[in-house]
Design goal:
single chain; about 190 residues; mainly alpha; 3-stranded antiparallel β-sheet; two-stranded antiparallel ribbon; WIBG Mago-binding domain-containing protein; PYM1; WIBG_N_sf; WIBG_mago-bd
Length: about 190
């Protein structure tokens, strides 16, 4: 009986005076030719991983950790400023949602759609005005100076749009609507100035 020659990880066999990759069968049934390997060549699969015996003896062996222990370590690390800000924002959103539910108007969240009403148009309009008043009351008093600055900003934007329209630029329907609301803006500014 003849013993099989030693085989490497890459499949290279050592014969009397040469190294070869033996003939193999392809999935379709044909054969690959036997290939000779240059003397001194070592394929990447056969290169041994470098190990340092001294470091290996000193290095502690890793112990498996429980998933619960990993989460406890993650929770014990201090949070960054951004994470703290995000946590505060989430808490504030939750408080606002609870206040909105108590006020009686629906709140849209990422997971659910707003509740639909079965009221007629006139009652729906009345409910909408009440809900906006409730929203204003829930958020607190609005600073009149802040509101006036916002109205003046809108007025400046409308004036810029009018100038562009006078020059002959084409306007989008939204821009035309904004120009049409200029009288309302002026009336609100006059009311706030008193």
């Amino acid at each position: 009986m003849t013993a099989l020659p030693p085989k490497t990880i890459s499949g290279i066999q050592d014969r009397e005076d040469e190294r070869v990759i033996p003939m193999t069968r392809r999935p379709d049934g044909t054969f690959r030719k036997e290939r000779k390997i240059r003397p001194g060549y070592t394929p990447p699969e056969d290169v041994a991983k470098y190990t340092n015996r001294v470091l290996e003896s000193v290095r502690p062996t890793p112990t498996p950790t429980a998933p619960a222990a990993a989460t406890a370590d993650a929770n014990s690390t201090p949070k960054s400023k951004t994470q703290l800000k995000n946590d505060k924002r989430k808490a504030k959103r939750k408080e606002e949602a609870v206040a909105a539910e108590l006020a009686g108007y629906p709140v849209a969240t990422n997971n659910s759609m707003p509740k639909s009403t079965t009221a007629t148009d006139s009652t729906a309009a009345a409910a909408a005005t009440e809900s906006t008043e409730n929203a204003a009351a829930a958020t607190g008093p609005v600073d009149p100076e802040k509101k006036l600055r916002a109205l003046n900003k809108k007025l400046r934007q409308v004036e810029q749009l009018k100038e562009r329209q006078a020059k002959g630029e084409t306007m989008l329907p939204e821009q035309i609507e904004k120009i049409d609301k200029m009288d309302d803006l002026l009336a609100q500014i006059a009311e706030m100035s008193l």
